[in-house]
């Protein structure tokens, strides 16, 4: 039953390095099909446009640069740890505990929360056009209303009782209030932000830190996760259940959706390994149609195709 | 002994004149500087070079070719294979020859892929210098591929009965592929008069040398004179060539007899001048019957002695045993007149054919690929049991120690690279004796550029149960955050490091900051401190004090009052903070509802009187006295009513 | 191939010591010109001078970094009879893009010695913040900072008389809790009649004193440097000594004596007179697999233990005036490097380069 995977030619992340980005901890984010935003080690955010020259070779053109928008009091520049976007709006967060609201059309910063967090902010995620969710080193999650004048978060909650930092955040493609976080200890936690700020579900998933989590953009019954031990997993709702839930979803009874189900939640899911365990962290991946592209600390990018997304 | 050692020259006049000293620069580099030793009792006066503008430090490092992006794929992929191999070995005690062969082939395919990408790059590169550099890598990795393949044949893929020739022919075909390639091209073209091509006859001879008799016959049939008697006769002879096959059931002596007959038959035909009409055909047949003149004539076809060796064996000693290879190898070297002209690759191949594994490993350590080859080959050979058998022959030799010695060097080198340190770690994991101690020294030295990297290092430390290193990294992060003015992050790291001194120091900073500015900062962090609070008294105090603030803000005055009394009674109030607690009682004493009992109030009064001469409460003393007196009277009245 | 990067240290006289921090990203230099300088490596690998100050009123012999756990801390010792502890302070008023102004503050001045202080070394971090100094008058002093957050307070814990003028000192870096603290001290006294020139001391928890366990009587010539190798979990310690030659000793402690006194079994495992003259410096790489030495002959030599546990010479480095760029081109290259921020490495020549062969010191 495991989905058949084909590994196509891993290659070095050479081209990105040429763009003067050290790989460790730098963040690259697709704003739309041909625009990417990247963070550099000097606390800057750069926008690049992907373009093709007459020979069909892919090139990158530098776009807007926001220089030094993350830095420490003593002047040391620091890393922008995460970027998230909604249409033209971009939010960057950093180890300096700052949130910057940017817009593609302007080189100036729209809004800065200077001391948004007394801890380093690790992840950021747009929930709505005016709302973002951030998480910090301490394991606190905060929701910010970007339209409010208040410099304080509209709500704060914890990932767990201990100091466990979330390593990645994502939300359900159609139900944005469904938020999933992966953490340092390999767990996956699910919230329904409409209800309250206590998690609906928590899975002990990977053995080591979760590096990235994503729903399939078109088939949200499928979730993908990668770990620092080099695993990449495909979670899917068991076929029998899937039919019911899909039907329920269409009928608008999304509260029955499997991700919210609290009882025997784990039994409703199947987990597949997409690739033999690599021996280094899989830092990031992206899902599109039946393909997964992932980048690993062994300096290679893998393309896995033929992901089984059968609907029943 | 010194003749074998490199002397590296430091371009400095002062170093030359004065002398040098040095310091190691973590992890693998050296700092060298001009220096002159002074006796501890000597006078302090400027040196004869004073004043100088030449006081330089030279950072010397090895130029590691493996760190070039084009070769990093080799590092990473072979690391995967290496780890899979070690995992397999950990799972089961015995390992089959087949599995080992499989791993050996995986390594070889990685080398092949590397060579191919080097070749693509050389085609793309524009400058001569780049081309030279890439060509140099190709030479290195070509040699590695060639040696590895031979070692695989001799040490890993040993066939029953020590039959080695078929493998050797395969080896030589793989590394000298031009004859098969030419033949394929010619046969595909399907042209008339193939013999007009200059490479026609060399190709046929080459194919015969590599044991590709059928293809040679195929080419001969394309000759325009293929239907003549001489050609037909040659084809007939070649078709009848006996093949030695260990699985055919034919014993070596039976085969030998057959072979002798076949050779005699051809010799008689040569003597009868059956091929005399055609010079090339006659040469071909003379080669087959080991005619010395013919062999010396075709020597020019061979690039090296090890190309000659399988060819010679094919016709002279088709049933050669693997342990006889060394003798024949030396014979071929003599034939080619190379006795004193052996290059490094030749030495290694000869050592392998003589089954001198230690010499092979010693020699391949001298190749310029920074130990990649020796490390992986020795590891594979060790696990195939090939190194262990040497222990009884060589004094003081431990196979395990040898392969771990190589792994230590290779792993340590990788640990020094900014993105390969995790690869390095995974090698050091496989050195039973010293590996973990080396990791203990090197892992904390991996530069921490940002928190993301810090978390990776911590993870690697925890995975290996090196908790003190994880704590150390957390602590250094904490100290860094203090310098950056990020007290919140600093406290989080301090808590992770479980260093109560640092936690207390930071909690102190928060409290002092409040004492000075009247505003409690970083309250988001104090929210939900949980059990981590217990790591330091000062933090408990800070946490509780923050709780009091929150209760007060939420207008839960009763609870706030109770907490405040608890704090006043506790023994953990910092010296600089008690007066603030005392002042906090005033609004609660004055509130409409009675919050403090008479006992509580006595406690506050005692506390106040003990400290009445303190400067910091001097001007508030009257207010406090009044407030406590008023609250005391209210409380006593109320309590008596209750009774 | 080897390559080198030249950093002109801008000292007016010979450099006496170079010390790298724990990560190899910072470098401290000291010189007869009485100055100490600190250099930081930027992201592109280029070394930038970030601080330079007159630290003493005599030649500065040695400079050494404390473990980074204690912050950015240096210790120096000098002919002026003092040793000093320095801490880096980052200024409060940073510019938006520049690093804050850094400077080094003298936290303490240790003035107990009546003669030149010849060596200074921080103790292993497991024991807190300890500092050992030795002096020409022949006294080893152990200082301690009881509060690691306050480096202005150092107490002189022990004074250990050695009778002979001391030139160098080395802590045993063993991480094992089974090993009591150990120190080796070398003397550059020239008179063979005065006996062995290397002394080994151990701290006794019972008597709270440093006890001399051993004098290496085989070393009668002046000793200029001494260095323990990282232990790597071995049952014995490895000590390198720079005297008229390079010596390597294996030192095995034996705690079986009922009196609680440790006995040492000392074996000379290697003796190299490759320098052919006095050896000045011995120095181990981070993991203790390679020993580098320098001597009167102006060369650096490297020794490595092979897999049958015997020490072998593996590489030589030598200053060469003929290869140094002449002054004109040197100025040019300086000008170039000051424009580009990236580190410039030059390929180093070598005398014997058999094809495909190369020494490796890792």
UniProtKB/TrEMBL annotation, chain A:
| Pfam families, per database record | WD40
Q: Which UniProt keywords apply?
A: Nucleus, Repeat, WD repeat
Q: What does the UniProt entry say about where the protein is found? A: Nucleus
- PROSITE patterns reported in the protein's UniProt record: WD_REPEATS_2
The UniProt entry's GO CC annotations, sorted and at most eight, read: nuclear pore outer ring
Q: Does the keyword Repeat apply?
A: yes
SMART domains recorded: WD40 (SM00320)
Q: Where are the WD repeats?
A: 203-238
Q: State the source organism's domain of life.
A: Eukaryota
- Note the PANTHER family from the entry: NUCLEOPORIN NUP43
What's this protein's name? Nucleoporin Nup43
Lineage of producing organism? Eukaryota, Metazoa, Ecdysozoa, Arthropoda, Hexapoda
Automatic annotation (TrEMBL), chain B:
Give UniProt keywords alphabetically.
Membrane, mRNA transport, Nuclear pore complex, Nucleus, Protein transport, Translocation, Transport
Q: Which GO terms describe its biological process?
A: mRNA export from nucleus; positive regulation of DNA-templated transcription; protein import into nucleus
Q: List the GO terms this entry assigns under cellular component, sorted alphabetically.
A: nuclear membrane; nuclear pore outer ring
Keyword set includes 4Fe-4S: no
The record's subcellular location field reads: Nucleus, Nuclear pore complex
Q: How does it assemble?
A: Component of the nuclear pore complex (NPC).
Function according to Swiss-Prot or TrEMBL: Functions as a component of the nuclear pore complex (NPC).
- What family is reported? Belongs to the nucleoporin Nup85 family.
Descriptive protein name: Nuclear pore complex protein Nup85
From TrEMBL, chain C:
Where does the UniProt annotation locate this protein? Lysosome; Nucleus envelope
Name a single GO biological process: positive regulation of TORC1 signaling
Matching Pfam families, A to Z?
A: WD40
The superkingdom of the source organism is Eukaryota
Q: Which InterPro entries match?
A: Sec13/Seh1_fam, WD40/YVTN_repeat-like_dom_sf, WD40_repeat_dom_sf, WD40_rpt
Q: What GO cellular component entries does it have? A: lysosome; nuclear pore outer ring; Seh1-associated complex
WD repeat placement: 8-40
Q: Which residues cross the membrane?
A: none
Xref: PROSITE patterns: WD_REPEATS_2 (PS50082), WD_REPEATS_REGION (PS50294)
GO molecular function annotations of the record = structural molecule activity
Keyword list, A-Z: Cell cycle, Cell division, Lysosome, Mitosis, Nucleus, Protein transport, Repeat, Transport, WD repeat
Family per record: Belongs to the WD repeat SEC13 family.
Please state what the protein is called: Nucleoporin SEH1
């Amino acid at each position: 039953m495991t989905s058949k995977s084909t590994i196509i030619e891993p290659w070095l992340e050479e081209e990105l390095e040429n763009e003067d980005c050290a790989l460790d901890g730098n963040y690259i984010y697709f704003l739309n099909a041909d625009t990417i935003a990247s963070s550099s080690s000097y606390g800057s955010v750069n926008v690049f446009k992907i373009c093709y020259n007459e020979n069909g070779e892919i090139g990158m053109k530098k776009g807007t640069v926001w220089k030094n928008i993350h830095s420490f009091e003593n002047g040391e520049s620091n890393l922008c740890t995460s970027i998230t976007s909604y249409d033209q709006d971009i939010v960057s967060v950093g180890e300096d505990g700052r949130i910057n609201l940017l817009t593609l059309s302007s080189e100036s910063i729209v809004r800065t929360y200077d001391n948004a967090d007394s801890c380093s902010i690790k992840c950021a995620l747009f929930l709505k056009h005016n709302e973002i969710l951030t998480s910090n080193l301490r394991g606190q999650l905060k929701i910010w209303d970007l339209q409010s004048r208040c410099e304080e978060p509209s709500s704060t909650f914890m990932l767990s009782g201990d100091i466990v930092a979330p390593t990645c955040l994502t939300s359900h493609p159609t139900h944005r209030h469904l938020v999933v976080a992966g953490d340092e200890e390999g767990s996956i936690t699910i919230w329904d932000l409409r209800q309250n700020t206590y998690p609906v579900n928590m899975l002990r998933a990977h053995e080591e830190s979760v590096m990235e989590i994503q729903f399939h953009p078109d088939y949200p019954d499928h979730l993908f996760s990668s770990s620092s031990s080099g695993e990449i997993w495909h979670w899917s709702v068991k076929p029998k259940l899937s039919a019911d839930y899909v039907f329920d979803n269409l009928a608008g009874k999304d509260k029955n959706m499997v991700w919210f189900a609290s009882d025997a939640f784990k039994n409703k899911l199947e987990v597949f390994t997409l690739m033999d365990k690599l021996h280094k962290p899989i830092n990031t991946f992206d899902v599109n149609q039946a393909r997964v592209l992932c980048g690993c600390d062994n300096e290679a990018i893998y393309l896995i195709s033929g992901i089984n997304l059968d609907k029943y | 002994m010194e003749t074998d050692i490199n002397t590296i020259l430091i371009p400095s006049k002062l170093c030359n004149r004065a002398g040098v000293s040095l310091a190691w620069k973590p992890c693998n580099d050296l700092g060298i500087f001009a220096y002159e030793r002074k006796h501890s009792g000597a006078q302090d006066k400027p040196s004869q070079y004073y004043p100088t503008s030449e006081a330089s430090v030279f950072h010397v490092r090895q130029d590691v070719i493996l760190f070039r992006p084009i070769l990093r794929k080799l590092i990473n992929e072979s690391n995967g294979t290496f780890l899979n191999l070690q995992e397999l070995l950990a799972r089961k005690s015995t390992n089959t020859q087949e599995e080992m062969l499989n791993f050996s082939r995986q390594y070889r395919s990685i080398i092949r892929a590397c060579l191919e990408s080097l070749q693509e790059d050389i085609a793309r590169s524009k400058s001569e210098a780049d081309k030279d550099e890439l060509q140099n890598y190709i030479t290195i990795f070509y040699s590695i591929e060639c040696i590895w393949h031979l070692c695989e044949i001799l040490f890993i893929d040993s066939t029953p009965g020590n039959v080695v020739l078929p493998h050797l022919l395969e080896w030589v075909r793989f590394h000298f592929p031009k004859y098969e390639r030419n033949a394929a091209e010619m046969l595909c073209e399907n042209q008339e008069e193939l013999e007009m091509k200059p490479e026609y006859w060399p190709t046929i001879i080459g194919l015969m040398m590599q044991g590709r008799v059928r293809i040679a016959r195929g080419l001969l049939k394309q000759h325009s004179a293929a239907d003549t008697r001489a050609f037909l006769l040659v084809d007939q002879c070649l078709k009848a060539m006996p093949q030695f096959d260990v699985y055919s059931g034919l014993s070596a002596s039976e085969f030998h007899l057959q072979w002798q007959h076949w050779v005699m038959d051809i010799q008689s035909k040569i003597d009868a001048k059956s091929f005399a009409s055609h010079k090339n055909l006659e040469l071909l047949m003379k080669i087959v019957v080991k005619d010395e003149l013919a062999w010396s004539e075709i020597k020019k076809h061979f690039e090296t002695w090890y190309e000659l060796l399988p060819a010679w064996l094919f016709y002279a000693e088709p049933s050669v045993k693997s342990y006889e290879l060394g003798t024949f190898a030396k014979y071929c070297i003599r034939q080619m007149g190379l006795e004193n002209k052996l290059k490094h690759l030749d030495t290694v191949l000869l050592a392998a054919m003589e089954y001198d594994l230690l010499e092979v490993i010693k020699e391949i350590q001298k190749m310029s690929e920074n130990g990649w080859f020796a490390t992986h080959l020795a590891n594979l050979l060790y696990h195939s049991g090939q190194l262990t058998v040497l222990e009884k022959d060589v004094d003081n030799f431990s196979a395990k120690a040898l392969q771990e010695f190589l792994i230590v060097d290779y792993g340590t080198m990788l640990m020094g690279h900014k993105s390969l340190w995790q690869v390095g770690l995974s090698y050091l994991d496989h050195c039973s004796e010293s590996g973990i101690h080396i990791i203990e020294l090197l892992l904390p030295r991996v530069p921490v550029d940002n928190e993301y990297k810090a978390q990776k290092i911590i993870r690697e430390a925890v995975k290996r149960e090196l908790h003190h290193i994880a704590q150390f990294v957390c602590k250094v992060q904490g100290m860094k955050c203090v310098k950056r003015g990020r007290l919140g992050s600093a406290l989080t790291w301090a808590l992770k490091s479980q260093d109560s001194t640092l936690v207390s120091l930071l909690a102190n900073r928060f409290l002092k900051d409040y004492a000075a500015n009247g505003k409690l900062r970083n309250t988001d962090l104090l929210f939900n401190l949980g059990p981590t609070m217990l790591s330091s008294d000062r933090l408990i105090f800070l946490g509780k004090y923050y709780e009091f603030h929150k209760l007060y803000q939420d207008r839960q005055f009763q609870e706030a009052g109770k907490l405040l009394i608890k704090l006043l009674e506790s023994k953990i109030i910092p010296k600089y903070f008690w007066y603030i607690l005392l002042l906090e009682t005033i609004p609660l004493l004055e509130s409409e509802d009675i919050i403090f009992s008479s006992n509580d109030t006595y406690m506050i009064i005692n506390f106040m009187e003990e400290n009445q001469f303190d400067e910091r409460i001097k001007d508030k003393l009257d207010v406090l006295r009044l407030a406590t007196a008023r609250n005391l009277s209210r409380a006593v009245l109320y309590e008596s009513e209750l009774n | 191939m080897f390559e080198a990067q030249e950093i002109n240290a801008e000292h007016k006289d010979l450099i006496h010591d170079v010390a790298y921090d724990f990560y190899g990203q910072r470098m401290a230099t000291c010189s007869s010109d009485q100055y100490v300088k600190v250099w930081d490596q930027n992201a592109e690998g280029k070394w930038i001078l970030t601080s330079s100050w007159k630290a003493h009123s005599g030649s500065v012999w040695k400079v050494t970094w404390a473990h980074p756990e204690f912050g950015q801390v240096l210790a120096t010792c000098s002919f002026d009879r003092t040793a000093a502890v320095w801490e880096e302070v980052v200024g409060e008023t940073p510019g938006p893009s520049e690093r804050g102004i850094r400077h080094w503050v003298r936290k303490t001045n240790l003035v107990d010695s009546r003669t030149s202080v010849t060596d200074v070394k921080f103790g292993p971090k497991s024991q807190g913040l300890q500092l050992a100094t030795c002096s020409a008058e022949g006294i080893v002093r152990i200082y301690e900072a009881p509060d690691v957050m306050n480096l202005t307070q150092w107490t002189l814990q022990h004074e250990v008389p050695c009778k002979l003028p001391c030139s160098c000192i080395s802590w045993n870096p063993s991480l094992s809790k089974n090993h009591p603290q150990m120190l080796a001290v070398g003397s550059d006294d020239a008179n063979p009649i005065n006996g062995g020139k290397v002394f080994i001391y151990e701290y006794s928890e019972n008597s709270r004193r440093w006890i001399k366990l051993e004098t290496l009587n085989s070393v009668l010539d002046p000793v200029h440097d001494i260095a323990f190798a990282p232990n790597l979990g071995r049952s014995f310690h490895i000590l390198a000594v720079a005297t008229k030659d390079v010596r390597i000793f294996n030192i095995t402690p034996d705690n079986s004596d009922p009196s609680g006194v440790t006995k040492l079994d000392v074996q000379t495992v290697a003796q190299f007179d490759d320098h052919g003259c006095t050896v000045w410096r011995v120095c181990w790489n981070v993991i203790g697999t390679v020993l580098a030495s320098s001597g009167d002959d102006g060369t650096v030599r490297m020794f490595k233990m092979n897999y049958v546990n015997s020490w072998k010479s593996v590489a030589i480095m030598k200053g060469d005036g003929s290869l140094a760029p002449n002054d004109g081109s040197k100025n040019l290259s300086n000008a170039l490097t000051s424009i580009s921020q990236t580190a410039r490495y030059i390929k180093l020549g070598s005398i014997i380069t058999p094809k495909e062969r190369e020494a490796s010191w890792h």
